[in-house]
Amino acid sequence: MKTALITGANKGIGYEVAHQLAGKGFHVFIGARKQDAGRKAANKIVKGGGKATFLEIDVSDNASVTAAAREFAKAADHLDVLVNNAGIIVDGDNAILEISDELLRNTLETNTLGALRVTRAFVPLLSKSKSPRVINVSSGGGQLTGGADGWSPAYCISKTAEICRELSLPRVGTHGYGRPGRDSLSGGRRGHDCMACCRCTPEADWKIFA
Questions:
Q1: What is the pTM of this model?
Q2: Is 15 one of the catalytic residues?
Q3: Which of 48, 106, 125, 126 qualifies as a FRET site for 118, CA 20 to 30 Å off?
Q4: How far, in Å, CA of 160 to CA of 80, rounded?
C-alpha cells in the first residue's frame, strides 16, 4: 500500500490533502502537534473508509521530528509521498519595523526550517519508495513580484526563504522535491496557499495524486 505523511493535517489544506489521498488508497499519516486534534482527524478519515494513522510531530522541534520518523518506521517500511504543509502566521505579524526578533525567528523555525528538517529526517524512508515525492505547500506571499507587499512580513519572508531553499535541494529517487513558483498550483489570491509540485517531468504537476 502507498503511504503518505502530511504535516499540519488535522485541519484545513492538510486535512483535505490527507482525505483525498486516503480516498485514492493511500495509508495516510496525519502529522500534528496536538494529539486530540490529530487523532480526531485520523478517526474521521477511518470512519469514511480510509486508512489513517495519527503521527505526533512538531516541525519546529528537531527531537520531535526525529521521534516521529522512528514512530513512522514502526508502522511502515517506506514513505511514498511527503507533504510539508505545516505553517503558522503569528498574531502581531503586522509591520516589518515593529515585529520582534522572536516572532520572526519562531515563524522561520516552522515555515522555513520545519519542512527542511522533516524532509531530512524522512529521506531514508523516501529512498525506499519506488516513486518518492516531496510536496511543499507554499504561499503567494512568498513571491518577490506581487507577493510580499507589507502584510504579515514575517510570514512572507519565511515563504520567500522556503522558495530559495527548494531551489537548492537535490532529487530523491526518480522524483524531485517540489518547489513553488513555476510549478505551483495557486489560486492567485494574496496569501493564498498553493501546492508546489513534483518537478521531475512537465506532466508531474498533474499527477501528484495518481
A1: 0.78
A2: no
A3: 48
A4: 27
Per annotation, catalytic residue among 15, 54, 72, 155: 155
In this structure, what is the dihedral angle of CA atoms 30, 11, 107, 150, given to the nearest 10 degrees? 150
**Does residue 125 contact residue 73 with C-beta atoms inside 8 Å?**
yes
* DSSP-derived 3-state class of residue 137: strand
pLDDT of residue 159: 83
User: DSSP for 71-103?
Assistant: HHHHH-S--SEEEE------TT---TTTS-HHH
Kindly report the CATH number that applies to the domain delimited by 3-206: 3.40.50.720
pLDDT digits (tens, 9 = 90+) for 74-90: 999 999 999 999 988 88
Domain extents in the chain? 3-206
